[in-house]
Design brief:
Elements (H helix, E strand, L loop, with lengths): L2 H12 L8 E4 L10 E7 L8 E5 L1 E6 L2 E6 L3 E7 H12 L5 E4 L3 E7 L2 E6 L2 E5 L2 E3 L14 E12 L9 E6 L8 E8 L4 E10 L5 H15 L6 E13 L10 E3 L15 H18 L12 H14 L5 H11 L2 H8 L5 H8 L4 H20 L1
Parallel strand pairs: 1-7, 4-13, 11-17
Antiparallel strand pairs: 2-6, 3-6, 4-5, 8-9, 9-10, 12-15, 12-16, 13-14, 14-15
Helix pairs in contact: 1-2, 1-4, 5-9
Length: 378
């Protein structure tokens, strides 16, 4: 019943699938606290527009040797607070007669013949389809797979005087010390005195909590120039950025969310991909009554692009700040967003790649292509 499960249930309810079907939703967490925020870019109005708390149409990018304010149109950068999303979804679902919400620990799932089996709180439930967003156990990449972590700590701060422009966000600021690896800060202002400041890293290992605090303090006092501020709230998160293949769907069991490979390996963005996956599942259920079909082969090229970037970052071939600087310095932001959304054409992808150093990316691309071929043969 996390982000993926709630989103899928809402998509089902809107499509009318729950009029004659029974849905059991199971999660140990009651979803009563604001445990996270989701930031994402989107064109027009999305399926959860009513709970978007803030949006920005201009954003700054900073790195050594380049700073620029970017117009995001036709996109807007949006934020949804976790508690607003949970409340909205649950308010739509609680009064649906065919939905039962069960707050217990899920112990195991499996498939048994024509049924999916869920074990929770000492009881066994079976169904025709089971949508799972839980990663059971630890992730174990195979030789040749890359595994980085996107880890971040954010503070919502309140200043004693006006500083921020609430119309402008800072999408990526790579000016902080890069000694730990690819490190940047983003700043999402809510008004002239209040903003979310998030210290983010792409590395193999986590830091001590004090290191995140030190990074935030250094950025707020140094880069923002704020000697006085109040921390209103904080969040911490870890997102896997990996080329490893998550367990595939097993007939009656369909994996969703990060467990279903819906976290973008090269960026860590998840929310938009989760909702798209949910919409595709619902569309296929409406048409055929079966689980979603696999993506066509030509759409899988984006997994290769993700692998190339992670290859370069994991092996320290080029620094992350340099790669993103070249992308944002030489390309319109809307094209970068479309590429990171897996929505560009071959021609647009060639244009983007042509703004990056050729030989490092060509060598990494060849290595990742061989790895993908070997993995498919196994």
């Amino acid at each position: 019943m996390g982000c993926a499960g709630l989103g899928l249930a809402v998509h089902m309810q809107r499509a009318g699938l729950l009029r004659d079907k029974t849905l059991l939703m199971v999660d140990k967490d009651p979803k009563r606290v604001n445990d996270r925020t989701w930031c994402f870019w989107e064109t027009g109005e999305g399926p959860f527009e009513s709970v978007v708390s803030h949006r920005w149409e201009q954003a700054w990018f900073h790195a050594a040797g380049y700073s620029g304010r970017k117009e995001l149109a036709p996109y807007a950068y949006k934020m949804i607070r976790g508690i607003d999303y949970y409340d909205y979804c649950l308010s739509l679902l609680r009064d649906v007669p065919n939905i039962t919400i069960l707050q217990v620990q899920v112990d195991a799932i499996r498939q048994d013949g024509q049924h999916a089996i869920l074990e929770a709180d000492g009881k066994i439930y079976q169904s025709g389809l089971l949508f799972n967003s839980i990663i059971f156990g630890e992730l174990h990449p195979l030789p040749g797979d890359h595994m980085l972590l996107q880890h971040f700590k954010g503070w919502i701060i309140r200043l004693p005087e006006d500083l921020f422009d609430p119309k402008e966000a800072t999408l990526m600021d790579f000016r902080p010390d890069q000694r730990h690896g690819t490190t940047f800060v983003y700043v999402m202002p809510f008004d002239r005195r209040t903003a979310l400041v998030e210290y983010t890293l792409f590395t193999e290992t986590l830091l001590e909590q004090e290191a995140y605090d030190d990074g935030l303090k250094a950025y707020i006092s140094g880069t923002l120039g704020c000697a006085e501020y109040e921390v209103l709230d904080e969040e911490f998160g870890v997102i896997p950025m990996t080329t490893m293949q998550f367990p595939g769907d097993h007939g009656r069991i369909v994996n969703i969310g990060t467990a279903g490979g819906q976290t973008k390996a090269s960026s860590g963005y998840t929310f938009t991909f989760i909702q798209r996956h949910a919409a595709r599942i619902v569309s296929d259920l409406v048409v055929s009554g079966s689980a979603p079909r696999p993506q066509p082969w030509y759409a899988q090229r984006f997994a290769w692009y993700d692998g190339v970037l992670l290859h370069i970052l994991a092996k320290n071939i080029l620094p992350g700040w340099f790669i993103f600087r070249e992308l944002f310095r030489h390309n319109p932001t809307h094209l970068i967003f479309r590429f990171l959304d897996n929505g560009t054409s071959f021609f647009q992808e060639f244009k983007l790649m042509n703004t990056l150093p050729r030989w490092p990316f060509m060598r990494a691309g060849f290595a990742e292509l061989l790895h993908m071929i070997r993995r498919q043969k196994k």
